[in-house]
């Protein structure tokens, strides 16, 4: 019986063309490699637990099967999904199936990504032939140069748009190091702000360049926004504590409250602790920002300081100096906390650049550098979703005071019922 099945399988294999056999083998290799990638991600977050002891980051099925264009033609692959039950926004992005390129065959998506990857202008046509097939024919270096010029023009026009009718509820701000080298070998980075509009949708507010920790660089960015009509800042801005952004924000939009990113803060604190303690400390930090009320968060905060302060003051000092800004989200709708505790919208948008680019051989001008980044974000922006709890935005803008994520009036009624 086994011999019969084996013979049948062999006959079936013989009926396939060489190209089909190669494609099948390629599919199996890619699928296995993706599974290894997701296992590595799960192992990285294995120590992060929920209050009940369950793992916070777990597998959650697959995305719909999609095609990846390869040298042997389109390959169907299934990319796994992960679920982050802690709310920090951990996602799985496969290095083999870059989000921007696999979602679009258009050159507007592929060209900036390839350039940042280190593909020279002369090699673009060959590289794009693998990615987009026949569409790449006739793509000469001169055509690539013209396209880059168009991106620069588009970016310049976009950076001059009128903002007098714009309003933002929240901002995420960060300085993104891309690894792309400019002609003067400057170690600058992208200064990015993504905002949430009153309808809950996200949009790119601005993208410039400068020094991540420089107040002056961020002042230039924020003053430009105000000059173009953005008179009122957001209710809350989220970012890393190391940014010069905060001092600049207080000068240009002093009414905007500060929220430090818990992902950045966790990394900074853990770096000041021995590796043997990092898993336990990470779980203790998790208890702070996942607490359902500010009072419980403060108790967990104080517990962390008491546990680690005597032996590792450098670690606890990093928490103490940003205490108020780390807990600001409790004064905003609970439905929004998922979005406000981290700068994940920026992190995930630039994952393809930040995690896959090394210092490239390409030297580009400042304008080309910004044009490339602008086109990458434009492609990513098309897939951005609205934040949760959109209905709460109107209450917030109308002046409703929130306490522990709930309107203060509702909180008072709850307290009265408990007292009775």
What is the structure about, briefly put?
With 420 residues, this protein is an alpha/beta fold. The chain has helices spanning 2-14, 18-44, 99-103, 107-117, 124-132, 141-158, 215-227, 245-252, 262-270, 275-289, 294-308, 313-320, 323-326, 337-340, 344-349, 351-356, 366-381, 391-397, 408-419; strands at 57-62, 66-70, 73-77, 80-84, 170-176, 181-182, 189-196, 202-210, 236-239, 257-260, 363-364, 402-403, 406-407.
Features:
two-stranded antiparallel ribbon, alpha/beta, 2 domains, 420 residues
SSE layout and pairing:
Layout: H1 2-14, H2 18-44, E1 57-62, E2 66-70, E3 73-77, E4 80-84, H3 99-103, H4 107-117, H5 124-132, H6 141-158, E5 170-176, E6 181-182, E7 189-196, E8 202-210, H7 215-227, E9 236-239, H8 245-252, E10 257-260, H9 262-270, H10 275-289, H11 294-308, H12 313-320, H13 323-326, H14 337-340, H15 344-349, H16 351-356, E11 363-364, H17 366-381, H18 391-397, E12 402-403, E13 406-407, H19 408-419
Parallel strand pairs: 5-9, 6-11, 9-10
Antiparallel strand pairs: 1-4, 2-3, 5-7, 7-8, 12-13
Helix pairs in contact: 4-5, 4-17, 6-17, 7-8, 9-12, 10-11
